[in-house]
Specification:
The protein has eight helices and nine strands. The protein is α+β, with helices and mostly antiparallel strands. A hairpin with a 3-residue loop joins strand 2 and strand 3.
């Protein structure tokens, strides 16, 4: 293992697109979704914080050749949360970062569940309860948006090992919120709060997480009950599970996922 490099994973957020594995050399980082194909990027690092890699080609090769196997633990402990207007608790995850100098003041506080509208997303639970079978992505976005209105606020938190979080700066965050310590239970476990007052809304959010289940399984601090729920949902979308598989650190029902992976390979080959 290259002693100079740091190996961790980060979440791609707003909209959510899974987890990237990272080999970090300071001024140069390499990113991969599967641990096989890597992209090299230069990074502007503030002077004096970390030494920049002077020869990215040679250092990158050395860091990749000496890398530990993926997946790596999540390293983006700084999280930017949209806040609920009622109690200023975290509502939906907007961004995450590894380093404090990357956590700037956000210009806006808008949560996006999908790219390009998410027209393919259908919540069967929401449809059964409302009779509406279209526009579920837009309905989900409005649900979260309305919970944060009229002047949405967003705050950075530095998460601790026990899941608690210290409030930092943010957008429209006053001094009364900076420095606060929230317990782990105050943060949604996944991407957005699931405890909504309306049954149809709860189903909508649950199905949103089920849609992303294969990629959410890459998160390494899930409760066993949550991981089991996500595994069941991921098995229903075998191709997505096949794509996300290299980043998943823990498996509870290995036989269920093994069958789903075989299905995913067959479905991909038939395309």
């Amino acid at each position: 293992m290259n002693r100079r490099a740091e190996y961790y994973a980060i979440r791609r957020l707003n909209p959510y697109q899974g987890v990237l594995q990272v080999v970090d050399l300071g001024g140069v980082r390499m990113y991969s979704s599967d641990g096989r194909r890597w992209q090299v990027r230069r990074v502007e690092v503030p002077s004096g914080l970390r030494p920049a890699a002077e020869i990215p080609g040679a250092e990158a090769r050395a860091a990749l050749e000496g890398r530990p196997p993926v997946p790596y633990p999540l390293g983006d402990r700084l999280e930017l949360w949209l806040l609920d207007r009622r109690d200023d608790r975290p509502l939906a995850l907007l961004a995450s970062r590894r380093w404090r100098w990357e956590a700037g003041v956000p210009e806006a506080a808008a949560w996006r569940p999908f790219a390009a509208g998410g027209a393919r997303f259908v919540s069967e639970g929401y449809a059964r309860r409302t009779g509406l079978r279209r526009g579920h992505a837009e309905r989900l976005a409005r649900l979260v948006e309305y919970a944060a209105r009229p002047r949405p606020r967003a705050q950075w938190f530095e998460r601790r090992a026990d899941g608690s979080g210290v409030g930092l700066h943010g957008l429209r965050v006053g001094p009364g919120l900076e420095g606060r310590l929230l317990p782990a239970a105050a943060f949604p476990e996944l991407l957005v709060r699931e405890d909504w007052p309306d049954e149809a809304e709860r189903a909508l959010v649950a199905d949103f997480h089920a849609w992303h289940a294969a990629y959410l399984l890459a998160h390494d601090a899930l409760r066993p009950a949550t991981r089991a729920r996500l595994e069941r949902a991921a098995a229903a979308r075998p191709v997505a599970l096949l794509e996300a598989w290299p980043a998943i650190p823990t498996v509870l029902d290995r036989e269920r996922l093994r069958v789903a992976l075989v299905q995913g390979r067959l479905m991909r080959a038939a395309r």
